Every structure is written in C-alpha cells, then in structure tokens.
Amino acid sequence: MATGTGTAATGAARTAALLLLSLVLALAPRASGAAGAGGGDCHFPAIFNFGDSNSDTGGLSSLFGAAPPPNGRTFFGMPAGRYCDGRLVIDFIAESLGIPYLSAYLNSIGSNFTQGANFATAGSSIRRQNTSLFLSGFSPISLDVQSWEFEQFINRSEYVYNSKGGIYRELLPRAEYFSQALYTFDIGQNDITSSYFVNNSTAEVEATIPDLMERLTSVIQSVYARGGRYFWIHNTGPLGCLPYSLLHRPDLASPMDGAGCSVTYNKVAQLFNLRLKETVASLRKTHPDAAFTYVDVYTAKYKLITETKKLGFDDPLLTCCGHGGRYNFDLNIGCGGKKQVNGTWVVGNSCEDPSKRVSWDGVHFTEAANKFVFDQIVAGALSDPPVPLKRACQSKGR
Predict the structure, then answer these.
(1) Residue 361 annotated as catalytic
(2) What is the pLDDT of residue 196?
(3) 76 contact partners, CB below 8 Å, separation of at least 6
(4) Which of 175, 203, 321, 353 is placed for a possible disulfide with 335 were both Cys, Cβ 3.0 to 4.6 Å?
(5) What does the UniProt keyword field contain (predicted)?
C-alpha cells in the first residue's frame, strides 16, 4: 500500500512538473527564424547583398576579368574578387552574424549560396549607365539588374533545391531563408561620381537624386514582395575625400575642408544621404511589418579621415596601391596595373603596410579602414533606429 501511494505521488509530481515546464515554455519568448522576439539576437540564417564595389565580393571579376594582385594581399593572400587588400565591410558583417563570406551571384566557380548571395558588382549604380564599362569604368549591372538576378535566384534555387536535391541542397538556401534573411544595400556612390564625370554641374547632379530614390524604393519593394522583411541600408560616404574624385574633376577639388576633401562633392553626398534617410522612413511607414535600418556610413568614414593620426593611420588621402603624384594615384595606372612611360614600365604597387593607410587604391578603403567603419556601425550608434546589427529585425514600425 505504501509503495503504491509513493508511486502515485511520484506520478503526480511528474505531471505537475511537466505542466509547469509547459507553462514556462508557453510564456518564454520564442524566436522564429530571424524574428528575434523578446529582445534577443535575430539569428539571420542568410544575407542577400546589393551594391557596388564597396561590397562586391567577386561579381565584376567574374564578368570582366579578375581584380589583379596585389588585391587581397592582406587577408586572402591572393586576389579574391574584392578591390581591397583584404576584407570589406560586408565581410565583417557576415563574420559577425556567423555567416560565411558571400559568394558573388555571377561567380560560377566554387560558390556556395547556402546562406546567401551577393549581387553587388564594382562600378554599379542605381540608375542604368548610358555607356559601356570600357568607356566609362561603370558597370552595366545596375540595381534593377541586380534585382532581376535576385528574382531569378529565388525561382531557380527553390526549384532546383526541391527537385534535384543532392549536392544542390548543400549549395542553395532553404526556401524559408528568403523571408528570414538580412537584406543589405550599399549603393549610390557611382550615381554621383558618374554624373560628375560627364561634366554635369552640381545642380544637375542634385536634380537626379529624387529619381534615384524612386528607383531604389522600387527595388526594395520588389525584394519585399518576394518575402524580404529585414533591411540594412548604408548611406554613401564622403566622396570628396576620394583621390579619384578629386582628380577626375579637379575644378571641384576646391574649396577644400581641413582634411583636404572637396566641400562640393561632400555636400552632394550629404544631400543624397538626407533624401535616403527620408526614403527609408517612408518605406518604414508603407511596410510596418518590415524592419528598415538606415546606417550612417558617411559619419564613420569621415571620422576616420579627419582623425587618422589619433586612430593610428597616416595621410588619409594617400593611396596605398597606386603610382605617383600627391595622392600616389594615377587615373591611367590602377592598383596592379602597369603602363609604359618613356620606354619604362610603371606599375601600380602596394605600399609596405596597408594597415596604416585609409585609401587602398584611390577609390576603395583598405581592410583596416573597413574594419574601423564596421566597428563604428555594428552596435547601432550610427543607425536609425539605433539598433545593433544582430538585432536589426527588431525595428519594425520604428
């Protein structure tokens, strides 16, 4: 009798414990995919990136020839499709989220799209360029083309993943990842510079910005229509601090600010960023079920340029990989390129220590500079709303 009573008591205790556990689980915050409910990290399973050379991990190299050595020397030990000595901001973003470096959508060799894809290509712009890459240096893969690639990627990957199986399941994302992923955008720089490079006036360049915002909005809405809900959108940097901008339009180089940057160029970049911030706010109102984070990369980059000595860098406008002149930059001899001058071959070589330079090749930042920018933005201090990268799913309706 005593044994039976003990067994019953034990059973009742177990039942009560199970009920209590069920209640705790029911009340506990639950994360579904990237939902991150309850204030925890979002756990994005994938990243899909759109942009230009600031985030290109191999797109242009796949199309028009690889970025030559010494690109990639610092981190990869060889060219890795990036116009940089090492990693880009998008690489540090992927690292911080526990996601492998993004393969370029256009790269057919050795790519793994399990946790995302990169549609960015160097030289890309929001608007289509009315010229060729060989004439202007700007890519034909404009933002609308990148969005078409994304739609094709979704359609084909879902079909192949489910129909063929096998190795494709190891190389392509799950269908649910498209609604749980982080969508990153870093584009607009080339729209401003390309307009200036065909000798447009500042007023003419500024007049294009409303159209740029409309086109960007259209692409973001198309991504939203395909399931995207979490957006991390970078503004453009201080273009007036880039040697290639200053040398392409020397008439705009002055007046200069205290750092030696073009005031005119930077004012246009600031106007672009103001309109971009307004555009992101408008998207937030239109789609309250999505999370849109505006990231002020301009402030991070300008801080680096104006406080270089304090931060351990040297001359912020002196290019690491290049040749000749005030900026160690020649419009006709790019990083890794060469040209015959008076019977002698002149080569665009790397400086001895890229970690001390801000500018890698007169257009792009070094890995060390990119790491500084990432460190400035990852915690959300320069974002609107001010949410950290890992919680970028939590800014819905804000």
Answers:
(1) yes
(2) 96
(3) 82, 86
(4) 321
(5) Glycoprotein, Hydrolase, Signal
pLDDT score of 340: 84
What is the spatial distance between Cα 273 and Cα 365, in angstroms, rounded to a whole number?
Answer: 20
- Better-predicted residue by pLDDT, 311 or 344: 311
**136 has catalytic annotation:** no
pLDDT reading at 22 higher than 60: no
Write phi, then psi, for 360 (nearest 5 degrees). Answer: -80, -55
Instruction: Report d(CA 390, CA 238) in Å as an integer.
Output: 26
User: Catalytic residue among 364, 383, 384, 395, which?
Assistant: 364
CA 294 to each of CA 47, 105, 274: distance values in angstroms, whole numbers, following the listed order: 17, 25, 11
Q: What is the full DSSP assignment across 83-128?
A: SSSS--HHHHHHHHTT-PPPPBTT--SS---TTEEE---TT--SSP
Among candidates 129, 118, 35, which has minimal Cα distance to 81?
118
**Would residue 53 show up in a list of annotated catalytic residues for this protein?**
yes
Q: What is the phi/psi pair of residue 332, to 5°?
A: -100, -5
Instruction: Flag whether pLDDT at 205 surpasses 90.
Output: yes
C-alpha–C-alpha distance, residues 11 and 1, integer Å: 15
User: Smallest Cα–Cα separation from 125: which of 193, 59, 211, 188?
Assistant: 188
What is the spatial distance between Cα 118 and Cα 120, in angstroms, rounded to a whole number?
A: 6
Confidence check: pLDDT of 250 > 50: yes
CA-to-CA distance for 302 and 320, rounded, in angstroms? 18
Mean pLDDT score across all residues of the chain:
90
Dump pLDDT digits (tens) for 114-138: 999 999 999 999 999 988 887 788 9
- Determine which one of 52, 53, 147, 191 is catalytic: 53
Residue 344's pLDDT is 87
Residue 204's pLDDT band (boundaries 50, 70, 90)? very high
* Among 52, 191, 296, 361, the one annotated catalytic: 361
Q: Provide φ and ψ at 78, rounded to 5°.
A: -170, 165
pLDDT band at 28 (very low <50, low <70, confident <90, very high): very low
Side-chain-side CA neighbours of residue 129 (13 Å): 25
